[in-house]
Amino acid sequence: MIPVLTIDGPSGAGKGTIARLMAERLGWHLLDSGALYRLTALAGIDRSLSLDDAQAMAACARALDVDFKIINHAVVIELDGTDVTSRVRSEEAGMGASKVAALPSVRDALFERQRAFQQAPGLVADGRDMGTTIFPEATVKIFLTASAEARAERRAKQLLELGENVSLPRLLEDIKARDERDSARSASPLKPADDAITLDSTALSIEEVLAIVAKAVADTNR
Ligand SMILES: Nc1ncnc2c1ncn2[C@@H]1O[C@H](COP(=O)(O)OP(=O)(O)OP(=O)(O)O)[C@@H](O)[C@H]1O
Ligand SMILES: Nc1ccn([C@@H]2O[C@H](COP(=O)(O)O)[C@@H](O)[C@H]2O)c(=O)n1
Known about the structure:
The protein is α/β, with parallel strands linked by helices. It contains ten helices and eight strands. It has a single domain (4-217), classed as 3-Layer(aba) Sandwich (Rossmann fold), CATH 3.40.50.
């Protein structure tokens, strides 16, 4: 079976960072499932659709015309032929994603697209339901978390580095709202798989988290 490492957890816990570093280290493929929900929201916004319209948003998700390109060692994301790399990371896309992700029809529409990422020699998949719903058979499952305050501070630092204006209280509010919506929804809510390793990164550096995850993967190969 093609091995899969899943990294789930709340927004800003460091999933994307650790998933990318682990994929590089292992030479495995990478699935950023949040990007698919963000792109679905952006496609809906661009078509002036209501993000609550389950049927229209599912059709949008199914027909998503996306391309992930590597240009000069960086990922470039195109939606309908347009570069949306920066837009995908915006708070508008994140909050929109969290709305459309609560629709079971949208989750169903993206199911097979995500499963198709499981290619040799292996896959690192980052999201909310990678270990519970999309890859329940995964070799190693990590549930990466951190306090809401630490996550808001990390996000603020990230946005400041991008030259964006930030309000820490506003970021903290958004993170808590997103946590609440992601955890309370009935379709694939944010929660650790029964067989996941839960890792609280509040007081850990990226290198320390990476070492723990790498050891968990190495331990399964013994
Ligand atoms: N252990 C850590 N200590 C300090 N900063 C961290 C740590 N892990 C990640 N970061 C930083 O926090 C920010 C958010 O990390 P990242 O984007 O990987 O989170 P995420 O869980 O994928 O978030 P989202 O689900 O919203 O995409 C980044 O700037 C990253 O460098
Ligand atoms: N497997 C997933 C991944 C993401 N979501 C939703 O998308 C939002 C954006 O995700 P990021 O990881 O890019 O921040 C997130 O808040 C979730 O609502 C999901 O439901 N399932």
